[in-house]
């Protein structure tokens, strides 16, 4: 059921669908990841206008049943999000691609696990997806281990598939059947 609410360290965690007013909070999340040089595909800061446009498109995609996105709010502050986007090819409409981001300060407390599990459940229920894939850099061992704990398995790798922080890295493809 959405929204989902629980408590950790006497603070309220709320997992819910995004709204246009989340633009600043979501921008803070992505820009904090860029700033820490996290192993993500984005390497440049996002402007408020870029984030506003992206969020508008995301909300439209949710309405059109092309995407699921869940926002994590910790004590009233947006601290992360997870999204699954349905593949656009006719032959792979049953597959989605996952992306997740959490600010550093809240990692390791189960928020990411709750966020990803709820997003997977919603993708299966609302989009009818049968499989979800994701990409993780080979330098991101914590991320890879986290995904394995949730049931994702490495199914392939693109050697030197990304250039990040002045280094070529393998892009690992992981998947999970729903």
Give the averaged pLDDT, no decimals: 94
Q: What's the CATH architecture?
A: 3-Layer(aba) Sandwich
Strand order of the largest sheet: 1-2-3-4-5-6-8-7
Biggest pleated-sheet summary: 8 strands, mixed
Q: What percentage of residues falls in helices of 4 or more residues?
A: 25-40%
CATH superfamily: Gcn5-related N-acetyltransferase (GNAT)
Give the CATH level 1 class. Answer: Alpha Beta
Gross morphology is: globular
Topology as H/E string? Answer: EEHHEEEHEHEE
- Output the structural class: alpha+beta
List low-confidence stretches. none
Number of H/I helices: 4
Gyration radius, in Å: 16 Å
Give a count of the beta strands, DSSP E runs of length 2 or more.
8
Offer a quick outline of the entry.
With 178 residues, this protein is an alpha+beta fold. It is built from four helices and eight strands; from the N terminus they run ββααβββαβαββ. The protein has helices at 23-35, 48-63, 111-127, 141-149; strands spanning 4-8, 11-16, 67-74, 77-86, 95-102, 131-137, 153-164, 167-177.
């Amino acid at each position: 059921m959405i929204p989902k609410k629980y408590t950790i360290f006497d603070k309220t965690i709320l997992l819910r669908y995004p709204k246009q007013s989340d633009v600043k909070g979501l921008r803070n999340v992505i820009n904090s990841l860029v700033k820490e040089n996290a192993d993500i595909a984005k390497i440049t800061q996002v402007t408020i206008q870029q984030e506003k446009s992206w969020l508008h498109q995301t909300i439209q995609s949710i309405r059109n049943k092309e995407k699921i996105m869940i926002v994590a709010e910790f004590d009233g502050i947006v601290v992360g999000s997870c999204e699954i986007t349905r593949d656009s090819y006719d032959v792979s409409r049953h597959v989605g691609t996952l992306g997740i981001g959490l600010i550093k300060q809240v990692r390791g407390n189960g928020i990411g696990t709750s966020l990803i599990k709820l997003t997977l459940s919603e993708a299966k229920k609302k989009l009818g997806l049968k499989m979800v894939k994701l990409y993780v850099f080979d330098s991101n061992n914590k991320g890879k281990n986290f995904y394995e704990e949730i049931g994702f398995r490495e199914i392939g790798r693109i050697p030197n598939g990304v250039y990040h922080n002045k280094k070529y890295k393998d892009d690992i493809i992981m998947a999970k059947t729903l």
